[in-house]
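Try this one yourself first.
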């Protein structure tokens, strides 16, 4: 059993061969694929893929920070409409802050992030957080919620040991580990040694961040197995044990643990 806690299989990169991509994921042992939304343009394809593969693919709703611009209020309105209509959303995501490409809309990104955190609490949903070059901002926004019912995943964690320990202060959160852990220059293997297995989940972020040995190819959910093997090696634990633990961690966050 393997869970891909973060995958964008609804994007056009998979338009030609999605059934084969899904089949390879299932053959690799993947039982659940969680899919974060990006913005209003991706809601329809996201829901369509999740409807076609019900029981395997699970949708989230949210506004990605790189899609926050002048019209962010309209975008948030659409997220809210989706949230209040009958839906199958398992989380609010992916949301957060991205100051890597552009800092123009920092203020708007902060407003959008905080609003979506509030909705998560209101609708009793976990959040999936995207952070790029914005650790201190994210921490500052979340700090007041430390003792709240807020839960979620810090997606694509690639930070330092100190950052990891600060994020682990949020007891209802897990760190999302993906193909970056397999990269030659990644510091993540060293950092992971000090993070309890009970606090990590595996993800692909397909079609991005393809793990070794498939670097250079489009990423897909089946490749979560490559990340699993690397993580098992770091912890010096059998892959089956890591697969079971990380899958349980993910299903717990998404409120699906039976």
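Now uncover the answer:
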């Amino acid at each position: 059993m393997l869970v891909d806690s973060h995958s964008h299989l609804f994007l056009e990169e998979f338009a030609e061969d999605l059934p084969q991509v899904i089949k390879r994921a299932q053959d690799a042992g993947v039982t659940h694929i969680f899919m974060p939304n990006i913005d209003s343009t991706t809601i329809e394809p996201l829901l369509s893929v999740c409807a076609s593969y019900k029981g395997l693919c699970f949708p989230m709703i949210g506004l990605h920070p790189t899609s926050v611009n002048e019209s962010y209020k309209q975008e948030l309105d659409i997220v809210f409409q989706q949230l209040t209509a009958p839906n199958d959303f398992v989380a609010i995501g992916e949301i957060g802050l991205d100051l890597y490409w552009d800092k123009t809309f920092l203020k708007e990104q902060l407003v959008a992030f905080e609003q979506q955190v509030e909705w998560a609490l209101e609708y009793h949903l976990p959040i999936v957080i995207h952070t790029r070059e914005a650790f201190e901002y994210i921490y500052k926004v979340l700090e007041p919620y430390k003792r709240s019912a807020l839960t979620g995943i810090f997606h694509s964690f690639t930070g330092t040991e100190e950052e990891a320990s600060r994020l682990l202060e949020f007891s209802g959160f897990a760190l999302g580990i993906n193909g970056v852990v397999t990269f030659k220059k990644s510091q993540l293997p060293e950092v992971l040694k000090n993070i309890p297995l009970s606090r990590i989940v595996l993800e692909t972020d397909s079609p991005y961040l393809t793990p070794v040995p498939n670097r250079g190819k489009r990423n897909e959910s089946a490749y979560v197995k490559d990340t699993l093997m690397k993580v098992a090696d770091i912890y010096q634990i059998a892959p089956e044990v890591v697969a079971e633990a990380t899958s349980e961690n993910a299903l717990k966050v998404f409120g699906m643990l039976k």
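Discussion: The first strand starts at residue 2 and ends at 4. DSSP finds nine helices and eight strands in the chain.
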